[in-house]
Amino acid sequence: MHEDTTRASHGTPRSAVKGWVMFCGLLLAAILVPFALLGDGLEAATRGLLGSPWPAWQWSLLLGGLLASDILLPVPSSLVSTAAGAGLGFWWGLLTSWAGTMVGCGLGYLLGARAGTAMLRRLAGETELARVARASERYGHWYLLLFRGVPVLAEASVVFAGVSRMPLRRFLALAALSNLGVCASYAAVGAAAMKAAAFLLLFAGMVLLPALALWLARGLKV
User: Are 159 and 51 in contact (CB under 8 A)?
Assistant: First the structure.
């Protein structure tokens, strides 16, 4: 009983895990059922959307802008980053996602530095604030890399960096490194799915990659 209580207090909250698992299950069902029923028609529609006549730079500005606003708005960053890889190719998709997420991280850092803990509580909640604080104590500034791909905690860790006055150069270096890894993963999935016309892979990657990050975060002792 004590062991279960300890795990519940130090791991990702059970409600958050259950909620994310339920969301993943529903989203996968929403993806698999239409593919089973519509098949080639849905793939053709998706290819038509991603292959729209919009210039690449307009797609890049749109997707990058969405990612930059992720710190304040409920933007599905995994979907946007994967779509960038699919619509723009790996390298341009990576650059677009990386630039957008770096702007978002900068905004989060400034919000934390200016508004303090009150802003962090509003954005993430008490539980996530406590978890990021414990990770900071245990892992130092490396907590930014640990949480960058984890839903909710990614945003909370960025704002916490501003609240805790992490040196700006160190923050930018760690954010750039962690964003590079996350954005490259999504861009690779999107580009590979588009190249192979494997649109089921495209949509599944939007769900499975953040789910994997959340699962790995549960193993952290914070």
Answer: no
